Amino acid sequence: MIEWSVGIAAVAFVFLVVFLILTLRKLMATLAETKETLSDARKSVNSITDEAEELIHEANKISVDVKGKMESVDPLVESVRDMGEMLHNATSSMKRTALEKENRKTIHSKETDDTQVKQEIHPVRIKMNK
User: How far from chain centre, in Å, is Cα 9?
Assistant: First the structure.
């Protein structure tokens, strides 16, 4: 009976070793596939990093270019604003002068004809914002 027990134990041990060998082979294949995937991922990340660096450099160049162009346009914008202020001051001055002249004038109407309508002058004041 001991011989049978030893034989069964030996056969069980052989099956266990075969099962472990098959499992280890599958594990090795999975590890090799994982290594290959990681290598591909590393290559992809490196190429994306290079493209991202190029994109950042181009964006910096464009930013510097736009900033320079904006600085060159600033005097023009200042001149347009000054012109607007001058026009505003001139029109305000003309309106004040016109209102002062209108306030000095009086309207005389003939009262001989009752059908004649008196006209009143109402000054219009326009407020202009800067």
Answer: 74
Rounded-to-integer distance, Cα 72 and Cα 129, Å: 27
pTM over 0.70: no
Contacts of 21 (CB under 8 A, 6+ apart): none
CA dihedral sign of residues 73, 75, 79, 85: positive
Condensed to tens digits (0 to 9), the pLDDT of residues 23-59 reads 999 999 999 999 999 999 999 998 899 899 999 999 9
Contact 91, 126 (CB under 8 A): no
- Give CA–CA dist 128/130, Å, rounded: 7
